[in-house]
Structures are given as C-alpha cells and as structure tokens.
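hiii, so i know i said id send this last week but things got crazy w the move. better late than never?? heres the sequnce for the chain we talked about at the cafe, plus the structure i predicted for it. fair warning i was half asleep when i ran it
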Amino acid sequence: MKKEAIFAIQNLLAEPKKIAIIPHRSPDGDAMGSTLALYHFLLKLNHQAVVIAPNDFPNFLAWLPGSETVLIYENDREHCTKILQEAEIVFTLDFNALHRTGEMEQVLNKLTATMIMIDHHQKPDGFATFTYSDTAFGSTCEMIYNFISFLDKTALIDKTIATCIYTGITTDSGSFRFPSTTSTTHRIVADLIDRGIENSEIHNQLFDNNSYNRLQLLGRALQNMKVFPEYKTSYISLSQKELDEFHYEKGDTEGIVNYGLTIKGINFAAIFIEHRDENIIKISFRSQGNFDVNQFARDNFNGGGHINAAGGKSYESLKETIKKFENLISKITI
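okay and structure toks below
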C-alpha cells in the first residue's frame, strides 16, 4: 500500500468515526475473520464500528469473537441501509466488485462515504477511495495483519483480533498447504500464537465439529464424484433433493470440492450444487499447478477468484450445467 494512502487513512482514523465493514455474500472463514478482526481493532481506536454481512454466515463460524454483533442485511434491510447511509467510512473486505454483495450493491453504489478496499482477488473494480489489493497474498486476513502494521498499531493486536486473523489465514490457505502460503505467512502465524491464540482449538472449531447429517452429505457427494483421467479433471454434483435429504445447512458443503484434487493425476476439480430457492447452480473450482480456474470461471460461469480457487454460478439446470462443463474440459489443456 502506498505511503500517501496509509497517511491519509491514518488521518481518517485519528478521530472517532461511524464505520461499516462489509464482507462478500455467503462469507467464508477469511471474510468473517478479516471483518471481525478489523471490527475489534477499530473498537480499540474508539470508532463506532459495525459488520454488515449481505446474508448469513455458516454455523461453523458462529464461535468467532464478535460474531453475535454482525448484522445480516437480508434479515433487516431497512436498519442496515440506514447504518450504511450514515457511515463515514466503509471497509469492503475479501471482495473487489460490489456485485459480490448481492442486493447490497444497490445501496453501496449510492454511498458518499470514503470506501477502503482490502482484498486479494484478481482484477479489482475501481469503486474504492483507497485500495489495498494484492493477489500474492493467500488471505485477506494476512493483509489485515499488514494493514494494522502499516498504521503502526500492531501493539493493539490482542488474542481476540489474533484469533480472527488466524481463522482466515487457516481457512484460505487450506490449513497452510496452498502455494500462496509463504514464510511470511508462517512468521505472522507465529506472532499470532505468541499473542495467545489457541490454534489447536481454532482448528477443532473449524474442521472437527461435524454434524451427522453433514458427514452423510459428504458421503453422498463422494458417491456422486465423476473422474476424467484423460482430462485430469473430477467433479461432484449435489441436487436440491440430496441437500434436503440430509437436512443441508449453510456451510455443510464447505471444502468438499477439495476431495477431487486428492486423486492422483487430477489437477482440476469442481462441485456443482443446485439451489432452487435462488434458481441457480452454485459452483466451486479448484486446481493445482498452472491451470487458471479464475479465468475459467470468468469466461464460462459468471464467476472468478484466484488462479487455483474460484467460484461461479449457472442459471441453467444442473444437468445442462454439467453437460456444458464436460464439453468445455474436453476442449482445453489442463
């Protein structure tokens, strides 16, 4: 981040302000970890801060400190809109295009507040007054740690803030196994541990609190897996009927797509999930090596993300979406 921008933000935060902090729609561990870390940090600077999520977050993140204070736009549009309109500063975290907030985009587009983007996805839009964007980082939470450091306020990082930051780093790094995990990432994590986080307990909260229904859904997903060795590709599909059968709750399909990449010789994996209430097929893509799933998602499935991790959506049926995907992979080199 440029020194001029840092200096300007330091001046903005020198006096108490009304501040809104926004994650993307369907927030994951990095989105919730970064927004709540910043929320707790800004409270220490005596700001009136509030996190407003476009829609609800998964139950496996409900233990995060401060999660009970998060406002959900879909649940109270009028109240959340009022807060956004009164905000003097709006931080947008873990996304770089306003359409990623769903319905909230209409409100955010009309705001006159200073907007500050902190994000690690490719091709950011130019809506923010100040932009801290860097695709080299594996998580927005790692960038939040740096952002606090830029402001010369690392002394304010306590166990609560550190816990939120560690959560996002852990989830977006695939528990530190993705290529974007650097030696600097590990040095930051070491500092967070020194500040008191209980890293093993955080891991348990994130990955070891499965419900019986979620494990049954995972079993069905793995049964549905299709493998195409000749294209180095695998995919999983889940219909609305299957989600209903196993009493699906938000977050239950988190991480399932990664199982496809554990197969020897597979470099590209996808999952297609039918959501009839929204009339869309939600898609996640993962790759290893040089295959760019961000560009693949942008070109073919109304999505985007990172080189090795991206999302998309389809307005066709589940069957038609999968047929399109199979046709595409037969024509590209992976």
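btw The first helix runs from residue 3 to 12. thought thatd interest u
miss u guys!!
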